[in-house]
Structure formats: structure tokens, C-alpha cells
Amino acid sequence: MLLRGRPPEIGIMLAALKRQAGRDMTRVMNIAVMHDGSASLRQGCWVVFVAALSVVFSFALACAMPFAAIATVAAANMPRRGALMLTGVAWLTNQTVGYLALGYPRIWDSFAWGAAIGVAAALATGAVSLLSARIRSGPLVLVAGFTVAFAVYELALFSATAVLPSGDDAFSLPVILQILWPNMLALAALASLHKLALSIGFLARPEAGRDGAYA
Fold first, then answer.
1. Is-contact 87 121, C-beta < 8 A?
2. In terms of DSSP H, where are the helices of 62-171?
3. pTM of the predicted model as reported, rounded to 2 decimal places
4. Can you tell me the distance from the alpha carbon of 58 to that of 97, in angstroms, rounded to the nearest whole number?
5. Would you say 166 and 207 are in contact if contact means Cβ atoms under 8 Å apart?
6. How far apart are CA 105 and CA 99, in angstroms?
7. What is the rounded distance in angstroms from the CA atom of residue 188 to the CA atom of residue 195?
8. 54-60 long-range contacts, Cβ below 8 Å, gap at least 24?
């Protein structure tokens, strides 16, 4: 007589396989969560590191803070939200150092210019982010991105002079060049440090579909 249904041994084996599969899936998910958490932690450390550099830049350069360079490196290698956050942290650090340590005047136009600088830095970051999504050549992202970032940043600040007080020579060629060269040096330094962080595995490579600035 044929036995109906499956033998009990097969049922026991299937149950054991299901339990093992469940354990394996849980292990994989835990590893994924740990990896994501580690990547987020390291990304946070990079933001803190840039904030620390912003303190150095603030003391060394004051109003010539290299926001165009920061915006370029951030937007060329990070998602837009992360890039804006990094630029925002750098701006907040710069303003904090300025008012607490460098004696920025605590008057309305000084606060207004501080806000204008933050908006200009955010616009520069957004512009580079849009550009990097369309340019796949790695080094070209940095060159074109920095050009766009610096132009957007300066144009945004120049536009602010329509409603905010400004010196007659604030946007003269010598002043613009005085702001340009620290940005170029900062770009080289930040790009080199970021590339090093990628090469040693401290930071994750750019997401799929983006080559990043060093491909």
C-alpha cells in the first residue's frame, strides 16, 4: 500500500532547512545593518573632520572661507542631501568661530551677510550636484564643478548687494582673486584627503551610476 503524504523524515529535514534559512537571512540582515551603520558613522566622521578644517580655515582666512571648494568636493562625491549637510556644517562652524572668536560685529547687516553666505554656499553645492549627475568623467567633475561653484557663489553674493550694504570694491578683480586662490588650495587639499579616505576604505565609493571625482 502506498503511503499518502510525505514521510516524516522529509518533513523534519524541510523544517530544519527552513530554520537554517531563517538564521542565515537574519545573519545577512544583521551584517547589512552593521555595514550601513559603520558607513554612516564614517561619513559622520568625515563631516566632523571637514568641520574641524572649517575652524582652521576660519582662523586663517576669515571671510575668505573656501565654500566653493567645500561645495565642489562634497557635491561631486556625496548625495545632494549629504553634500548640503556638509556645506551647512562648514558654514555654521565658520559663523560660530567668526562671532565667538574673531569678533564679527553683531549688527543686523553682519548677520544678514552671514545668512547670504550660507545661501550662496548652498546654491553652489546644489549647482555642482546637478552638474555631477551629468558629467561622468571623474577629474572633469572637479574642474567644471569648481568653476560652476565659484561662479554661482560669487554671483549669489553679488546679487545680495542689491539689498545689503557693501563696499565699492568688494567685487573688484583683486578681491575676487584674493578669494579664488584660497579656494583653489582648499580644493586640492580636500580632494586629496577625500581620495585618500576612499583609497584606504574609510569612506564608501560613490553610489552606482556615479563615478565620483577621481574615477
1. yes
2. 67-77, 80-100, 108-132, 138-160
3. 0.75
4. 7
5. no
6. 7
7. 11
8. 54/89, 54/90, 54/93, 54/94, 54/97, 55/93, 55/97, 57/94, 57/182, 57/186, 58/93, 58/94, 58/97, 58/98, 58/101, 58/102, 59/97, 59/101, 59/102
Cβ proximity of 76 and 126 under 8 Å: no
Q: In tens digits, what is the pLDDT along the chain, a chain of 215 residues?
A: 444 555 555 556 555 555 654 554 445 444 333 444 466 677 677 777 787 887 887 777 766 789 999 999 999 888 899 899 999 999 999 999 899 988 899 999 999 999 999 999 999 999 999 998 888 666 788 999 999 999 999 999 999 999 999 888 889 999 999 899 989 989 998 888 888 877 887 766 655 445 455 44
Rg (CA), the chain: 25
| Whole-angstrom distance, CA of residue 92 vs CA of residue 94 | 5
The grid cell for 90 is 562648514
Question: Cα 143 to the chain's mean position, in Å?
Answer: 17
The Cα–Cα gap between 125 and 86 comes to: 10
How far apart are the C-alpha atoms of 160 and 166, rounded to whole Å? 9
What single letter denotes the amino acid at residue 73?
Answer: V
Which residue shows C-alpha cell 569648481? 146
What single letter denotes the amino acid at residue 199? S
